[in-house]
Structures are given as C-alpha cells and as structure tokens.
Write a structure and sequence with these properties.
55% of the residues lie in helices and 10% in strands. The strands form two sheets. The protein has a five-stranded parallel beta sheet with strand order 2-3-4-1-5, with helices on both faces. A two-stranded parallel ribbon has the order 6-7.
Length: 333
C-alpha cells in the first residue's frame, strides 16, 4: 500500500491490525507511526491502551503477549515497536501475526532494512495487515517532492529555489521537511518561496551556491565561476569539496548523456536526464559548449579531485579550497 493511501485510510478511521513500516527512508515511517501514535486513541484512552517498545530493549514474546490483550474502556489498543530492526527473534511474532486481534493495532517500525519476505512473519503480515516499504528518494525527484509538500500547505516554490534546496540539503526528507517548515513559518508576505527567502531564512546564498556554479560552468562564465569557487573556499564547512565534486559529476554526466539521446525533445530529455523540464534548456546550452570528448575529460578530472580530497596523490599541505580552484580551472580550460 502506498504512503498516501495509508494516511488517507487512517484519517478515515480505517485501521489494520498490523503495520510493517520498513525501508531506507525513515521520514515516511515516522509520519505514519506518529500519526497512529497521536490520533488513533484519545488522550484519556492512551494511558491504558497505548504502549511503545524499543527493539533493542524489548523481547518479541513480551510484545506478542501485549498484543493479545484486550483494550480497557476503548475500542482499540495501540502497540508501537520503534527500532524493530534491532528486535531479537522478531520471528516469534509470526504466531501472533497469523491470527491478530482486531482490537489491537501493532506497528513495527523496521527502519533502514527490509524484513525478509520469505519469512512466516512477513507472509502473515502481508495477509492480515499492511506492509509499507519506504525507498530512498532519488535526487532528481526531490524538487517534485518539495513542490508537492509545499502545495499541501498552500505554498509554492520557484524551480531555482527548489534546486538550491536539493543541492544543499540532499535527500534526507526529514531534514528537507524541517527546513521547508521553517520557510513556511518565516515567509508571511507571500505564499511563493524564492531564492531570496532561502538566503534570508536558511543562510544559503542565492548567488554563490552549487546550482549557480553549475550554471556558470555551463555558460563557461569564467569570472562568475571563479567568484563562486572563491566564496566556497571561504565557507568550506558549508561548501565542502566532496559535495562540489559529487554535484558537478552528476551535472556533467547528464550533459554527456544528452549528446547521445535519440529523442532530444524537452519532455523526453527531462525524463531521461532526470531533471525538471524548466532546466532542460540549460543542459541544451551547455551541450553546445562542451563536446563529448571534453565532457569525458571533465568526468575524469572530477574523479581525480574526489580522490585528492580524500588524501590520495596530494600533499597534506594543499587545502580543499586550493583543490577546488584548481579543479574548476581545469574544467574551464
């Protein structure tokens, strides 16, 4: 079952006896589990009918026995197992999962892993409950995720602002959601978030960031690229070389890929490159300035400086700021 469908059912009061929430993305697992924890029972009912276990501090038999109890002065009891992936002998719960109580809602938060689908426990949960697998979001899908998240709160965001957040916050959805919530609270004069709002409220420069560096390199704007990399050197904590090499590797790899697309229409290119359609024109322009041969060389340069940033083949006297400047020079010349 999908995340949205699970939440929609919960809000309608449609409950299942067991929820296995598993996978690499903890954000969705926390959202479902927290909703159940805060909304299924009233505050008065929780005292006797809601129990939270932690996998490493609990045992499966105790959880199974607790799940078989009937609620007191309520229609349901809620049992939440956090860090269920650390629960010893979790397979013991299979006997309960085979015939779960309709009056119990058992939630297993199995983060960063997946329960083996071949086990009896997984098979019984699939038959009698809900299995939700939260996969890690791909970086190219994050701008769309940001748009949807904000739209649900009656806000929107410019493509440039979404790209800045994507470049600097990565794909940790809990972190991204936290920063978006700050912006929603801070932005009172408009319901559209811009790069200026991000600079003012989060501290990410609207002019000197990895997204603008990509644009400068794509345009072969030597002056602007040097300005930005100089800024990076004076703010190494916020702009580590590893983040620069990783982002530029992704950027130039997409330009390289564009050269060999059979269908170069905007819609097709956006889909195949994994970028927002708004930015396809930038990749088209960059592809005109960089031949496949030069792009192959640039990808090699980025690999070289990624290794150097980790101490391979470079003197310990050379700092990251100098490495970044040298790397950008080689890319542009």
């Amino acid at each position: 079952m999908e995340f949205g469908a699970i939440l929609q059912n919960l809000k309608k009061g449609i409950y299942h006896p067991i929820y296995l929430l598993q996978g690499e993305e903890p954000y969705y697992i926390d959202e479902i589990s927290n909703y159940i924890e805060k909304n299924v029972l009233t505050e008065a009912e929780r005292g006797f009918n809601q129990t939270v276990f932690y996998g490493k501090d609990s045992d499966a038999m105790t959880i199974a026995e607790s799940s078989m109890r009937f609620p007191m002065m309520a229609n349901k009891q809620v049992i939440i197992v956090k860090e269920a992936q650390t629960l010893n002998k979790i397979e013991i719960l299979a006997s309960y999962a085979e015939k779960p109580l309709a009056s119990t809602i058992l939630v297993l938060n199995y983060k960063y892993k997946k329960l083996d689908s071949r086990t009896r426990l997984a098979k019984f949960i699939k038959k009698n409950g809900v299995i939700f697998t939260a996969d890690k979001i791909r970086d190219y899908k994050l701008p769309d995720w940001i748009n949807v998240y904000l739209a649900q709160r009656n806000f929107s965001i410019t493509p440039q602002a979404a790209q800045i957040l994507t470049s600097y916050l990565g794909t940790n959805l809990s972190k991204v959601a936290n920063e978006l919530n700050k912006l929603v609270i801070a932005v009172k004069d408009t319901n559209k978030i811009t790069p200026e709002h991000i600079e003012k409220n989060i501290g990410l420069s609207k002019d000197f960031n990895i997204f603008e560096l990509q644009n400068a390199l794509g345009e072969k704007n030597i002056f602007k690229a040097n300005q930005i990399i100089q800024y990076f050197g004076s703010n190494e904590k916020l702009n580590p070389i590893q983040k620069t090499t990783s982002s530029l590797y992704s950027y130039f790899s997409k330009i390289f890929k564009y050269h060999f697309l059979k269908d170069k229409s905007d819609r097709s290119a956006a889909s195949q490159l994994g970028v927002h359609p708004y930015f396809v024109k930038d990749y088209v322009s960059a592809a005109r300035k960089y031949s496949p041969t030069k792009l192959y060389e640039i990808i090699g340069i980025l690999r070289e400086y990624d290794m150097k940033s980790k101490g391979f083949g470079v003197s310990t006297m050379v700092n990251a700021a100098e490495l970044q400047k040298e790397m950008i020079y080689k890319i542009l010349h």
